[in-house]
Automatic annotation (TrEMBL):
The keyword Transmembrane helix applies. It is a multi-pass membrane protein. The lineage of its organism: Bacteria, Bacillati, Actinomycetota, Actinomycetes, Kitasatosporales. The chain crosses the membrane at residues 14-35, 55-83, 89-110, 122-146, 158-181, 193-226, 232-252. Keywords: Cell membrane, Membrane, Transmembrane, Transmembrane helix. Pfam families: MASE1. This is MASE1 domain-containing protein. The keyword Transmembrane helix applies. It is found in: Cell membrane. InterPro entries: MASE1. It comes from Streptomyces ardesiacus. Its main location: membrane.
Amino acid sequence: MAPVVGIRAWPRPVLLACATLLVAGVYYAAGRLGLSQQLTADGAVVTPIWPPTGLALACLLLFGPWCVPGIALGALLVVLSLGNAGPETVGIVAGNTAAPVCAWLMLRAVGFRLSLSRLRDGLALVFLGALVAMLISSGTGVGMLLVSGKLPMEHLGIVWLAWWVGDAVGVVLVTPLLLLLYRARLPPPSARWAEAAGLTVVVGVLVPLIMYSSVSVMFLTFPILILTALRFQLAGGIPCALFASVMATVTARQGAGSFGRLTEIETMVKLQAFNGTLGLTALLLSSVISEQLNTRRSVERACQELVEALQHLNAGGPGGPGTPGADAR
């Protein structure tokens, strides 16, 4: 009999350290990606979409509280990469860490499901995870900048609004996508592959044309978004909304399309409103459709079980094959 060679597992502290560094690295990369699409509004630099908040909340929902040190370290690295770090850095990092943690705790308290298969899950993510919890990060960050003298009082309102909406949009668009990718399994080949490929081409061609059109036709994005959500629920609606939001942000930074004749403030407000509306529409519509489909499948299964039970009873009833002496003549 061959000897069994034992495999020594890594110590738990080493695993936690590696996991913390991994979360911090991914958070930092997401932060740099968000900073690459900055806008200037009334002299203040804002980010229309802040992916790290969505990433942090998704990590907490999937893996639990051990991700908190990695989130804090990643937030610290992002702040330090901007330069001019000071005492306010501690408050900003604390706010960016506390916001997703509070969102995670509130979602757990209301019985949030990672599948987002119910309307209540979509509403919880929007109102608790995004709109309410992100008040912590935006309020703390703007407050610390104001106290340190790095934010003029006249920019307070616009920076706070941009910070809050950017964090909220990051949760609404990025968190569902990461939850979806974590649960994704490659389906068997079917006719839906062709439909998915066709919709991908439609989105990839029409959305840039809409964004770069000199005529203000950004509203035409919503029929495309609704179609993808109707056909593929979250798997179609969220990627479509994220792609459209990114294209709108790129167009706004270039001052092209329907953003070409707007002031900096008007550009920021229009872009934030558009991105937020896209995210809300995709998430809530997909949740409603998924809930209806799940309800229909449950009813169909119940009807099938009822039919099988009736067939079984009829088979064993008087004169049926299952009755002793039924074949005696």
